[in-house]
């Protein structure tokens, strides 16, 4: 390709780098958008064929040009003015992009309005660059489906070396797009591990917020109890900037109402390079025996991370106990809520769409087996047989037990018992207890294994402790600077 980009354009650009260059007239948002489109064409859809992008916004360049003009005539809206952002394909946008959750049945669905968080991004001046591939239906399709695969988008690859390397799910494309420098920022969603896992696997920062910090409106649902959107970025600073833009009370999402006094519009105020000094951090390593043979765990790298915390002045409490960590968690909440919430979403689709219920979706997939059912649909079929009401006794007991054991006998119990500011987990092994509690976590790079596979750690805390977690993660990042761009 014959386009020559000026010397500013390189991998690992940060929001601050870009804003300074734009203010100095060195680059424009249009040129930046063209740069990322070039990288997507060269490495995502050709070359290595990483396949993280599912759809490109055909108006992205026009949006960027408009924001360049606005910068000159009216000034800058904020730190995201002119910054490209990509979205997971279960987040609705009112434009020419479809929202399909990776399914072929919904490949022609055009939403009638933006999701709440998309509206926030547009108001902040972000350029919505495109939609990212994801594990189909947020991993609600098949028990044998590979993470990062969808019938509509195919298989997303991990950019670090071996093409068979686990990519993490279900926000795979969102993590990979940022890791591969196809966008400055991205947004994923999580029910359990869907942000944390791909962040760890692809050496990026991923924040899974408190449920209710960010509106769920306009996101194809999985559960009512655990779903949340969250940011991916290459640095804690950029993730904090994006998080602040996404927060806000949504009158149409009751989960956000409790957050009114606990929201920050600017989480960059908590970026403190000395933030680990005096912080009490509990190390949860009682699950490590389960991970000794796992390709996702590296004992040396985890111990190195703990040593960094000590060297930065943190008070480390090892061998902490989380009473409920090893309990036999029931999955009735996810099973029942997915059927109820997904059916509610499907029934409200426009009349011309081919499916309006889970049953119709199953039938649609059966009629197009070759395209739709590479891995089958046993998870969908199992849910089809469930009651479509949320009065089931198993469901109600599970919902209450999840909260009690994850909060009272889980994260909150442990934080109080050991007087902790946060808990640190290797990789993302704490995702389930945090997800069922509805509590925040932040995943951050912590080195690379001998085979080049990324390794990371997760900081976790109580409800609305994102400010604390960001401070700790930033201090760890500044002390280590572990992240390296993949060699595409």
Structural commentary:
- The protein has 488 residues and is of the alpha/beta class.
- The protein has 15 helices and 13 strands.
- It has helices at residues 15-23, 29-44, 60-73, 116-123, 172-179, 196-201, 236-246, 299-311, 332-347, 358-367, 369-372, 378-384, 393-417, 431-437, 466-480; strands at 53-56, 84-88, 127-132, 149-150, 154-155, 185-190, 205-208, 228-233, 280-283, 315-317, 422-426, 441-448, 454-460.
- The strands form 2 sheets. It has an 11-stranded mixed sheet. Strands 4-5 form a two-stranded antiparallel sheet.
- A hairpin with a 3-residue loop joins strand 4 (149-150) and strand 5.
- Helix 2 (29-44) runs antiparallel to helix 3 (60-73).
- The longest helix is centred in the last third of the chain and has 25 residues, at 393-417.
- The radius of gyration is 21 Å and the shape is globular.
- The model has no long low-confidence stretch (mean pLDDT 96).
SSE inventory with pairings:
Elements: H1 15-23, H2 29-44, E1 53-56, H3 60-73, E2 84-88, H4 116-123, E3 127-132, E4 149-150, E5 154-155, H5 172-179, E6 185-190, H6 196-201, E7 205-208, E8 228-233, H7 236-246, E9 280-283, H8 299-311, E10 315-317, H9 332-347, H10 358-367, H11 369-372, H12 378-384, H13 393-417, E11 422-426, H14 431-437, E12 441-448, E13 454-460, H15 466-480
Quick overview of this protein structure:
By secondary structure, the chain is of the alpha/beta class.
Question: What labels would you give this structure?
Answer:
alpha/beta; 13% strand; 35% helix; 488 residues; eleven-stranded mixed sheet; globular; 13 strands; 15 helices
